[in-house]
């Protein structure tokens, strides 16, 4: 696979959770022994006993490397054994490395871009991300600029690639599809009104309910439905280029996938996994049948050719549409929600795990009543986006009565077992569930409740762009459902005291 077709690394050391866990266990053995020996004597003698321990003779570079293999709790315990160790364990350089380990190089590099980045306290930032409890919304739409802004739509795609927002397709009033592509450069001022540029490519053909993911500096688009109800199963590659004379351009080309491809569909879920593959699940196929199959797209060294293969495992998520897939780093991808074959709105969570050399689906079982406010979790047409800290931010969607939502939830699976040995995983502890599911407070601008919008983050994972969707509208004789398409762009910012 060419270097151009690899994603920016959100998991920088490219080790699986199991590898890091085994390294942490072996590294933790020697340090824990020292800690236990020191704690068995009085505080006055602990320094003398620890001074005779082999660990006290290690260089700081060696200790630094060991600490980077340990979980946070062990690092904090290590810091309590002596002043020297406390100074090392609380050093800003160590905590920046921990952030890189847990969040990825691209996130940390993006956080350091602003002018005040030198003032960052990485330990404080890490703690705030773990305790995140609110977001702030900023409106980025210009109400007076109708011609230079994408028209209202839903079930489109919105991606952040190479510093640009890229919007394609979607459905609009009258059930018509759109075939336009828009791009906007974000820069480092995320709260400013963006200037959109329409790209007159003519391809791919108009559609909605397609999936589009970022792999390296490329966009990979699959499937969708046009306004004649025809399901697609074509795969496209998009790439942004910048020219001094003609500005920004985005070129699309059809990807050669050979004779094997997933059945035509729309309203499916898709994401990038393993930094180099596209994963899709479910959707609405021919004759309105909801699908429950899983497919992966592998690329050759030549990015103009790819290979689709179906992944058949048992158990696996039931057939559905309007759900989400979100890669959370390492070997795991999260599937959440959607609408089932009986038109029921779902609230189940599945992990797609690719560790140990093979792929499998694992369901996480939990009771909604054990989660504060959890009865509102079932939804379809929501967004689920990976944010800073490896968590998933879920926003909006609609319930089984088509009541649209405007709530923000964080799904945190960091406390789940790193090695999955049992199926399914049952989460019964209310404390664990409270850490796994957390509803966030929303400040600032109040967007309308919406569903089938789209969202993406910048490279830091701190800023999310959201555009469009279906919102409640005034009832007119021609609008019996009381719905309208929205053309609003707004920014969701994680509230952190940097």
From TrEMBL:
Q: Does the keyword Transcription regulation apply?
A: no
Q: Per the record, where are the segments of Basic and acidic residues compositional bias?
A: 1-20
Annotated SMART domains: FBOX
Residue ranges under compositional bias (Low complexity)?
Answer: 26-53
SUPFAM superfamilies xrefs: F-box domain, Kelch motif
Q: Which domain of life is it from?
A: Eukaryota
Q: Per the record's keyword annotation, is Translocase included, yes or no?
A: no
Residues passing through the membrane, by range: none
A single Pfam family it belongs to is: Kelch_KLHDC2_KLHL20_DRC7
Residue ranges for the region (Disordered) are 1-54
Q: Which InterPro entries match?
A: F-box-like_dom_sf, F-box_dom, Kelch-typ_b-propeller
Q: Which keywords accompany this UniProt record?
A: Kelch repeat
Domain F-box as annotated: residue spans: 52-98
Identification of the protein by name? F-box domain-containing protein
Lineage runs:
Eukaryota, Viridiplantae, Streptophyta, Embryophyta, Tracheophyta
